[in-house]
Amino acid sequence: MIEAALMLTICAAEDLRSMKVRRSWLYLWALALLCRQACGCGVSVGGAAPGLVWLAASAAVRGAWGRGDGWCLLLCGMTAGTENTLRILAAASLSAAAFVFLCRRRGCAGDTIPFVPFLAGAAWLVCAENYLGGSL
Question: 42: left (phi > 0), else alpha (psi -120 to 50), else beta?
């Protein structure tokens, strides 16, 4: 779970800076997953489902939803598992919606916002919740 939060944080910094996630970070994450599988630590193939749905939705809306967000979510799912990924996605979506709502009330909302930083924050929150035994 911590490796998912760390990689999402790296990708979030990139997303904030350029509104894109470099493929090299995604390739590095995928390579780490292959090494994890080779070491017998396991990879959650089912955890990739939310990311696959995101990528399909991104294609359906012609890129209005970022493909980088979908790839990050897919790799996060394979690292953290299905349940944790759904919790991360729910927390990230709620916090992004609150952010957009507050920005629109203040008149400072742009057309697009980077979503990976919300995924990273939610991943750290879920990681902390798992560590504390679900007391958050």
Answer: left
- What is the domain count for the chain? 1
In a domain, 104, yes or no: yes
Domain assignment present for 136: no
Which pLDDT tens digit goes with each residue over 9-37? 888 888 888 888 888 888 888 888 778 77
The pTM score is: 0.83
Q: How far is CA 101 from the centre of its chain?
A: 21
Please enumerate in sequence order all residues whose Cβ is within 8 A of that of 97, keeping only pairs 6 or more positions apart, or say none: none
Domain membership of residue 30 (yes or no) is yes
Residue 62 lies inside a defined structural domain of this protein: yes
Residue 111 to residue 91: CA distance in whole angstroms: 22
Domain limits for position 93? 2-131
73 or 42, higher pLDDT: 73
Question: What is the mean predicted confidence (pLDDT) over 47-66?
Answer: 84
Burial, 71: exposed, middle or buried (Cβ in 10 Å; 0-12, 13-18, 19+)? buried
Tokens at 111, concatenated: 């057309």
Helices (H), the chain: 2-18, 23-38, 49-60, 67-80, 82-106, 116-131
